[in-house]
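Reader question, answered in our methods column.
A reader sent in the components of a multi-part assembly and asked whether the whole thing could be modeled at once rather than chain by chain. We filled in our standard form and ran it. Here is what they sent:
COMPLEX SIZE: two components
ENTRIES:
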Amino acid sequence: MIVTIEHYLVLSAILFIIGAYGVIIRKNLVIVLMSLELMLNSANLAFVAFSKALGNMTGQVFMIMTLTVAAAEVAVGLALVVAIYTHRGTLDIDVLKMLKG
Amino acid sequence: MESVLFYIFAAASVAGALLVVFHKNPIASALSLVLTLFSTAVLFIFLLAHFVAAIQILVYAGAIMVLFMFTVMFLNIREESLKFDAQNLPVKLGVLLLILFIFGYFASIGFKKSFSLNHAASLPESFGTVEGVGEVLFKDYLLPFELTSVLIVVAILGVVAIAKRGTD
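And here is the structure of the entire assembly that came back:
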């Protein structure tokens, strides 16, 4: 059985849905960030799959860009996590509702 | 052979993703995320994207995961209960509907085989290598590539500003 692009796209969709479910359902802020990484990773998989299918390396270049954005996002997000935890003593996003710090 | 390996690593990545979302312990979630990212890197090698696979392991599974582990251990986050309140029920149902819609989309039109992934003969020799990706990156996408360095500088400044305010 030949592995086609549809296999990779279905896998990418499954990973994206799991990540979106984690972002919506989990209460811990760190796990929410991890689920965001899952979603970005699944988008990367779709980019690279299309890059192979179309014989065009632009998809891989965009994967590198996404990786850069993910790294910056995680750095800022985890700095915010540490600041929130030292300030409020919790990471439960149901508790962190107030806009006024 | 390739399809067997594809199914093995696809199953590993899905299992890792499920463990990330459904495990109580944040450390176990972080390690499961490493499993998912490694399996995805193997799939990148199947897709002839060798440079991207190496970057995936170095940056994602190396740097970003160390950052996650450091934060979880630094803050000493406890295990949480996975019981969700009833007010989340509409959200759960909405996500299930999303799953059904996306799977319905793939089932209806996605599986009509429009083009196959296996025409490696038409690909250039340097496909997916450092040479090929670098040529595209530094010729066609030079400006976006330089702008990402601006993004990194902004991220560094933001992190330093947030961390300084936390200590004051």
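What stands out: The CA atoms of residues 7 and 49 of chain A lie 10 Å apart. DSSP finds three helices and no strands in chain A.
Send us your own complexes using the same form.
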